[in-house]
Amino acid sequence: MKKKSSEDKLLKSDIQRELKRRKKMTREMATVTYIVVLIFVAMACYCVWFLMGASSKILNNPYNKRQDLMAKRVVRGEILSADQEVLARTKVSKKGVETREYPYAQVFAPVVGRFSHGKTGLESTEAYTLLTSGVTPLESLKNQLKGKKNPGNQVVTTLNTRLSQIAYDSLGGYRGAVVAMDPKTGKILVMVSKPTYNPNTIDRDWDLLEDDSSKLYNRCTQGLYPPGSTFKLYTLLEYMKENTGDPAFTYHCKGKIGEGSEVLHCYGNEVHGKVNLRQAFAKSCNTAFAKIGGQLNREKFRQLCQKFYYNKAVPLEELECKENSFPIDSATSSGDLMQASIGQGQVLTSPLQNALLVSAAVNHGKLMKPYLVDKVLNSYGSILSETESKSIKKPLTSKEAKSLCSYMQSVVQEGTGRGLRTSNYEVGGKTGSAQFEAGSNKSHAWFVGYCKKGKKALVVSIVVEQAGTGSAYAVPIAKKMFDAYLL
Asked: Which residues, at least 6 apart from 336, have a Cβ–Cβ distance to it below 8 Å?
């Protein structure tokens, strides 16, 4: 009996060891399985991420050697305007020498970019598309046998040549920028920046351009300016949000507010007297809006501005955009908050970003994603791909959007934008005169606004550097563009 008992114990011990071994093996197999699954999921996520966005950046990266290989087989395609005007093309001589040409010279240089001395603009971000050929395999074979290159695909932009030329000419000799977009689609119709350069003569002019490098960057997306009184659109909106719609507001403007180093003046030391909220906005009363701003909830104000891409870059895929600045938080002093409320202090915006709030207001509160490339065509003119308009978000209620448009209309009817008054179409906006040097009376001239007639609408954002008031220098440019677009 003792012997059998001992054998039973040994058997039981062996069974337990075997069970432990199998459990350990099962755990190891499960661990390996989990690791393999995680790797697979990570690879799948990477593939989706690459296809959704990163592939375009990688393929269009100017350091991507694959472009050089493609250029040996494909003639770089054309860049066209929305109205089918050629903005960039490749001319091939009888000896096979390729030269990139820009028929509109300086007008589109900041946005279309250049091919020589480092690719910029659409020449850079759409490089892979331009070096891809959509010809049939049979034609490709024929060209190969003949020793010819295949024609590259064409990039059709959203840019309007007529409006762009008007904006370019209207800026004259001033430095500045003009952006115009369709608020219902997000299409950018105008992106003009001055001073600029002629991409046709870039090789000859390069040494001179290096001495004045500001000609080489796009002020529409890269320029950061204090928005001045155009920022009162944000202050007005946040005040209405915190005070339930359109509150009863009265203020007696004496031309200045604050004490000592924190004193603020109305532009030109103008005294507006007793004003309600609509009058204060239409007449651009700094002291009234400084008073309003000082009462706002700092955190809510910051959150509102960030919905319109303050403290971040505008999501324009085709061009690099600089990050806009609204450095207000719970620790901000009352004086700095008052400065920010009238678009001064450390608040900085690009002309493109400054068009977004107006665009959302005109589009019933819905903000559309801005874009520059409308479609891609092959050399036969067939559409290979087309950009779909899409909403980023709905940062405004329909009621808030309607109210903002009404306030912008009052600027034109009874305020600083009277130069835009017309019975031919609906028009509204906000002027601005942004001081950019402490202790100086010099100011950038701003106007942001819209025109609307039937189903057509246009939003513009204009800055004229060191010019003076928005009503005197930016409004006339907007007037020419609105008339050309709607009449």
From this structure: 328, 345, 346
Contact status, residue 430 vs residue 233, Cβ threshold 8 Å: yes
Beta bridge partners of 80: 86, 156
184-237 pLDDT, tens digit per residue, is 999 999 999 999 999 999 999 998 887 777 899 999 999 999 999 999 999 999
Which residues, 6 or more positions from 355, have their beta carbon under 8 angstroms from its beta carbon? 179, 180, 181, 448, 459, 460, 461
Query: Would you state the structure tokens that stand for residue 271, as one six-digit string?
Result: 């005294």
Contact indicator for 445, 433 with CB cutoff of 8 Å = yes
- 171, 170, 247, 220: which is closest to 352 by C-alpha? 220
Token pair recorded at residue 390:
């899409």
Based on the number of CB atoms within 10 Å of its own CB, is 15 exposed (0-12), middle (13-18) or buried (19 or more)? exposed
Reading the block at residue 443, the tokens are 């100011």
* CA-based nearest residue to 73, from 128, 153, 126, 143: 143
CA distance 485 to 353: 22
Q: Helix 286-294 crosses helix 334-341 at what angle (to 10 degrees)?
A: 130
Distance between CA atoms of 330 and 15, rounded to whole angstroms?
A: 67
User: Distance (Å, rounded) from C-alpha 398 to C-alpha 308?
Assistant: 16
* Model pTM score: 0.87
Inform me whether the pLDDT recorded for 55 exceeds 60: no
Q: Helix/strand/coil (H, E, C) string of 199-211? A: HHHHHHHHHHHHH
Q: What are 442's two structure tokens?
A: 């010099």
- Residue pair 187/374 in contact (Cβ under 8 Å)? The answer is yes
Q: How far apart are the first and last CA of the chain?
A: 113
